[in-house]
Amino acid sequence: MSYLAPSEFVTKMVDAGESKVFMSTRDTIIRAYMAGAILALAAWFAVTINVNTGQPLVGALLFPVGFVMLYLLGFDLLTGVFVLSPLALIDKRPGVTFGGVLRNWGLVFVGNFAGAFTVAFMMAFVTTFGFTQDPDKVGAAIGTSAKAERWATPRMARPAWRRCSCAGCSATGWSRPAWSAP
Length: 182
Prior knowledge:
By secondary structure, the protein is mainly alpha-helical. Helices cover 77% and strands 0% of the residues. The chain contains eight helices and no strands.
């Protein structure tokens, strides 16, 4: 695995942000859709492991596999483009505009949401056996979790959201020093 010096690291990050801003609409939405779907599948996988083993730590340890897959496959999460896209604007790269950055953010949001929603629908279909009965124990656990989060006060939800956003943004940045794999 190659290592980049800090000055090369910054240049690579800005280059990545620029490439995301100039990526075609089709490619951006496909990469974002797949990222949303894989992350939702990873969450479903973690809850399934938790429910079936009764060991929440096992599910929590396996959930990051989804993030590893996203990075290795080159898909885009919104937290990642929140970090990378503005770097090209700050560096004043030719052709990069505030509108281009907002366009990228919007497309990635739509793609992430659509991918996650597709998996949520499939999960609901599978756990209710085609919507013919009540959900199985995995579906019930996910439903209970969703109800608890829906009724959480904004004061309770904000710190968790901040931690997740900071973790996602940091992971995007910290994963960039190594640019090749054996």
